[in-house]
Write a structure and sequence with these properties.
The chain is of the alpha/beta class. The chain has three domains: about 5-70, Udp-n-acetylmuramoylalanyl-d-glutamate--2,6- Diaminopimelate Ligase, Chain: A, domain 1, CATH 3.40.1390.10; about 90-290, UDP-N-acetylmuramoyl-L-alanine:D-glutamate ligase, CATH 3.40.1190; about 300-420, Alpha-Beta Complex (Protein-Tyrosine Phosphatase, Chain A). It has helices at about 5-10, 45-50, 75-90, 100-110, 130-135, 155-165, 180, 185-190, 195-200, 215-220, 265-275, 280-290, 320-330, 350-365, 375, 390-395, and strands spanning about 15, 30, 55, 65-70, 90-95, 120, 145-150, 170, 205-210, 225-230, 235-240, 245-250, 255-260, 300-305, 305-310, 335-340, 370, 385, 405-410.
Length: about 425
């Protein structure tokens, strides 16, 4: 079957499923493979559950009109997403960066949806599978598609750009994330900068942080750009405070967000700048920012049994961990308690980064500080440390804190949100 013919089939059955446990009626099942699974083995099951077609890449001896055999299922899914992106001709805004991608994406979506029909990456489906699935969620009615792109090695953003062909792009920042794959911060800059490379090569428009010298230096002579800054050199947006929620002003209008931490200021700025570029009124932009509430363990404020909890346990790297600690230090609150969980994917830098983070946390003199995980357990200090979450859980089951303000921060694999059940 040609790609064009497969796309015509997709237009008739416009739901894609890659998990045989989540089949919906009349979907097309793509039998992806992984290290521990082979979707080809579940093609028949998917059809019995209601899928209209199954796309597989293992030769079969039987003939079934509902089963489409291709050379490579993943490659076919990616090519189909690229084809559909061209077919629908929606405007595509791509964004990447070390920290804040998903929050920024949600803010941009909240703002632009006040005026346009938009689709955006669901959750963090931002990789070589998630991006084509996002592209396939575009409809002929879609005005703007907001596509988040993640990467943990070089050339990944470059490849995703070839699929999505963005008209606009934004990079949140360049931080110490996925050092195991990138090798260094310089590697991070090069990898995330692949979005700039694509946009510049194709003379597309770039949104950028005018207070970030890495971005301003790179884009100094590039004409197709729009920036924001706190110093009035670009579109002026001024930070007011974050105690605990970020407040800012733009064109003498104050915006009160539901986002914790000064580090979320630039995420808001990006959404405001993009809304301004697409000619939304300030009132609509304000509505979009103020109505957005973070979910999924991302900078959430939770009130529970007398505790005020800053839950930021979706992910962590040295940059985001440092910013979270600095913000927590600035909060006007008494009896501050901090739980820090291991940071992953740091490669040979892991020992150094965990030591530096624990030293920083000690210097801030919190009322209580707990380190959780194998990497933090190896740090050289006299802090209370637990090798595993289970060890911490045993302690929490027998301990009561007085009324406290608590920060919970760690990588996704640590799942530190489980602490909430134990307080």
């Amino acid at each position: 079957m040609t790609l064009e013919a497969l796309h015509q089939l997709f237009l008739e059955f416009p739901n894609i499923c890659t998990d045989s446990r989540k089949i919906t009626d009349n979907c097309i099942f793509f039998a992806l493979k992984g290290d521990n699974f082979n979707g080809n083995a579940y093609a028949e099951e998917a059809l019995k559950k209601g899928a209209s077609y199954a796309v597989v890449d293992e030769k079969r001896t039987d003939h079934n009109d509902q089963i489409i055999v291709v050379d490579d299922v993943l490659s076919t899914l990616q090519q189909l997403g690229q084809w559909h992106r061209d077919y629908c001709k929606a405007t595509v805004i791509a964004l990447t960066g070390s920290n804040g991608k998903t929050t920024t994406k949600e803010l941009i979506a909240s703002v632009l949806s006040r005026k346009f029909k938009i689709i955006a990456t669901k959750g963090n489906l931002n990789n070589h599978i998630g991006v084509p699935l996002t592209l396939l969620s575009i409809t002929p009615e879609t005005d703007i598609a907001i596509v988040e792109m993640g990467a943990n090695h070089l050339k990944e953003i470059e490849f995703l750009c070839k699929l999505a062909k963005p008209d606009y792009g934004y990079i949140t920042n360049f931080g110490k994330a996925h050092l195991e794959g990138f090798g260094s911060v310089e590697g991070v800059i090069k990898a995330k900068g692949e979005l700039y490379d694509y946009l510049i090569l194709n003379k597309k428009h770039i949104f950028f942080n005018g207070d970030d010298p890495i971005q301003t230096n790179r884009l100094h002579s590039y004409p197709h750009k729009s920036g924001y800054s706190d110093n009035k050199q670009y579109y002026p947006i001024t930070f007011l405070d974050a105690d605990p929620f970020v407040r800012l002003t733009v064109e003498n209008l104050t915006i009160q967000t539901q986002l914790v931490g000064r580090y979320n200021f630039t995420n808001c700025c990006a959404a405001i700048l993009i809304g301004h570029y697409f000619k939304l009124t300030l009132d609509l932009i304000k509505q979009g920012i103020e109505n957005y509430s973070p979910q999924n363990n991302r900078s959430q404020i939770i009130e529970k049994d007398g505790y005020q909890i800053v839950l930021d346990a979706y992910n962590a790297n040295p940059t985001s961990m440092k910013l979270a600690l600095e913000n927590f230090k600035e909060l006007k609150a008494s009896n501050k308690v901090v739980f820090l969980g291991d940071m992953f994917e740091l490669g040979s830098s892991s020992e150094k980064e965990h030591q530096e983070l624990s030293d920083l946390a000690i210097s801030m003199n919190f009322d209580a500080l707990f380190l959780v995980g194998e990497n933090f357990y190896k740090t050289k200090n006299s802090l209370t440390k637990y090798r595993s979450f289970d060890e911490l859980a045993q302690y929490l089951k027998t301990t009561k804190f007085k009324k406290s303000t608590i920060l919970i921060k760690g990588s996704r694999g640590m799942a530190l949100e489980r602490i909430l059940e134990l307080l």
